[in-house]
User: Fold this.
Amino acid sequence: MSGRISPKKVPMAEQPPEERIRNFREVPLGYTPEQAIEEAKRCLQCKEAPCIKGCPVEIDIPAFIRLVAEGRFKEAALKIKEKNALPAICGRVCPQETQCEAVCTLGRRFEPVAIGRLERFVADWEREHCDPIAPNPPPKRGKKVAIIGSGPAGLTAAADLAKMGYDVTIFEALHKPGGVLVYGIPEFRLPKAIVEAEVEYVKSLGVEIRVDSVIGRLYSIQELFDMGYSAVFIGIGAGSPMFMGIPGENLSGVYSANEYLTRSNLMKAYLFPEYHTPIKTGKKVAVIGGGNVAMDAARTARRLGAESVYLIYRRSEAEMPARIEERERAKEEGIIFHLLTLPVRIIGDEKGRVKAIECVKMELGEPDESGRRRPIPVRGSEFIIEVDTVIVAIGTAANPLLPRSTPGLKLTEDGYIVVDEETGRTSLEGVYAGGDIVTGSATVISAMGAARKAARAIHEYLSGRA
Amino acid sequence: MAKNIHLLKVASPEIAKKAKAGQFVVLRAVEEGERIPLTLYDWDPRDGTISLVFQEVGKTTKLLAGMRVGDRILNLIGPLGLPSHIERFGRVVCIGGGVGVPAVYPIARAMKLVGNEVIGIMGARTAELLILEEEMRSVSDRLIVTTDDGSKGMKGFVTNALRDLLGSGIRVDRVVAVGPAVMMKFVAETTRPYGIKTIVSLNSIMLDATGMCGACRISVGGRTKFTCVDGPEFDGHEVDFDLLLDRLNQYVEEEKRIAAMDC
Ligand SMILES: Cc1cc2nc3c(=O)[nH]c(=O)nc-3n(C[C@H](O)[C@H](O)[C@H](O)COP(=O)(O)OP(=O)(O)OC[C@H]3O[C@@H](n4cnc5c(N)ncnc54)[C@H](O)[C@@H]3O)c2cc1C
Ligand SMILES: Cc1cc2nc3c(=O)[nH]c(=O)nc-3n(C[C@H](O)[C@H](O)[C@H](O)COP(=O)(O)OP(=O)(O)OC[C@H]3O[C@@H](n4cnc5c(N)ncnc54)[C@H](O)[C@@H]3O)c2cc1C
Ligand code: SF4
Ligand code: SF4
Ligand code: FES
Assistant:
């Protein structure tokens, strides 16, 4: 059989680097129907289908891929939507190489089946060719559930519970639903029109979304129960930006990645002044960190017109948490990597604006608790890079706003919500949680997987009661 | 209300029910618009309205000023920030400068309600810009009015009035000051030698105002705080005002650019 199978995935066209750094349009262009069918035919249709277990929301992967191979795209879309309400998003942003594709049988000898690309193709095809199809509404159960936060976790919990017949309301703090999908991940990786379309799909299931509602200030969780909600799911993410605590970090021109990306994505500052929110475009930009968020910030800076973008990371590239694909794209776009480099101080001018960053070179020592080799500063190796903008992308922490206003909610030392892993149950009766506010910053699909479990547990809780 | 100062009354039953002195809202006027914070000046849970007072300084506030009765604000988020710490301290001086007056008014009212003796100090550049004098008088046991040019009340800044007051030897248990950053800085300097606890309400630049971005960060007692969730009120003796002032000027060029374009 292997003789007929192409060892490599069908490649997907991309915007060339020199062109894409001048726009915010999506970089990969997606499969054509012919390419999708060709790729789908690589699937071995394994009986055991290990790929399904590699997907936290358990999409029936061989089944949808077979439908693609047969050219039955609409049915493929329905198949995916049985399990995943956000396929166009997941097909784009899932780290497939550590999820479904990591365990694909074909991957033992060749490149695995391009499951993510196929999922993306199907979802895009459906959006472009069909009227949105919502499943028939289930019989109403006459019970209300409140969801706090409209990121991937909240949207998934809402969709699942609505499909079971509950009246679901999402309360979202910002003016647009989607969480990190709208404020964090840039347009060129995840077009906002796609997020909007998938949010519309969730609404079409009967979910009400109330934006501009900061729970903890507008209503407490207790007040939600008083308003007639029988259960609450908390999916507020881990959005509080961390800083390094080095001198100069509060100078003008120093951003958290969240601020920089929110200005550009949510507020569309890249269209300033047509849109009114300003952003410092910067000529020379330093981005601190080595994760996907740092890559997003660096690539955004480039598109906003920065001439030089430096990525400063204290370990070596082997330890970088960012996906290889994202790293490669960043390099193609001319981002300059300063590896084994630690910022020690940000230097400002007389008006308190950034003018340079001082760094020290690092070398790798013994492995630390994370198993990665610990970086140690090399004495006397300090050097200065002139920059006018610094973006700190070293991670986020739990946002304390809601937990602080919820007495009795058990938290970890770092402020994350303590839950039972299988059900998402918190220390408060009828209150469940999932996603980044439980695990710390993770992935879209893991937040969705946790939300699915919690939705199931909420259903059991509510149906066990008179 | 005065030149370039406007009162905006908005129907928002939910916020009106929850609002407390010292809190603010964030609003977005149009789809392309910025999210801007404005302090709650007044609210009425019975008729479900909130009142905001703002000064026209840039793009968004100009758009707001152009609104007519019946227009809709696209997004309104609140109440945000921690409420003021209201307690029976004894004698409290409440200071408002410029559009800080509407912000300090509900605090003075709440202080008065729990039995404090309230001394109000309010100031503006000139008489025409003095707003809400009667309202301030109604919640103060004594009200001192100042104008920079002496066109009404005492000539000078609110800090001059405060200095005179403290110099007279009168006991003051707490000071609350809301106004331009420079004013709050000098109020804090004035009370520092007396060791009087001085609360200021900071107006740092904000974006989401839910603790997610850090745009509003300031330094208090050497530690970084987020004004939107840890404040907006802080101990004035601990605040690094010079940093706040620098950070407030971050976007002057961009603001000029967009203000120069017609709305
Ligand atoms: C820049 C960036 C790039 C990323 N790229 C990827 C990627 O490529 N692939 C991937 O899998 N993962 C990626 N991630 C991680 C991923 O986005 C998150 O793990 C995921 O979004 C977590 O989902 P969530 O639903 O738990 O929280 P979030 O997406 O953070 O959503 C939480 C929502 O709750 C709202 N909220 C918070 N507090 C309140 C409150 N008190 N009341 C009401 N609403 C509230 C917030 O406004 C927000 O909308 C990225 C993250 C960032 C920041
Ligand atoms: C908690 C808080 C409460 C406030 N309450 C009031 C109030 O009750 N009445 C009132 O008139 N003003 C208040 N402000 C200030 C008000 O938010 C700004 O005047 C407004 O954002 C200016 O927007 P603009 O688009 O019209 O002007 P822009 O063109 O954006 O800016 C013009 C000027 O406003 C300053 N500014 C810009 N954006 C902000 C921002 N997000 N926050 C603070 N200052 C900013 C700039 O430094 C500049 O000097 C408050 C600010 C904060 C943080
Ligand atoms: S949702 Fe993510 S993990 Fe699941 S099949 Fe799709 S790409 Fe793979
Ligand atoms: S493991 Fe790979 S080859 Fe096997 S069914 Fe899943 S996608 Fe197809
Ligand atoms: S305004 Fe974003 S954290 Fe305060």
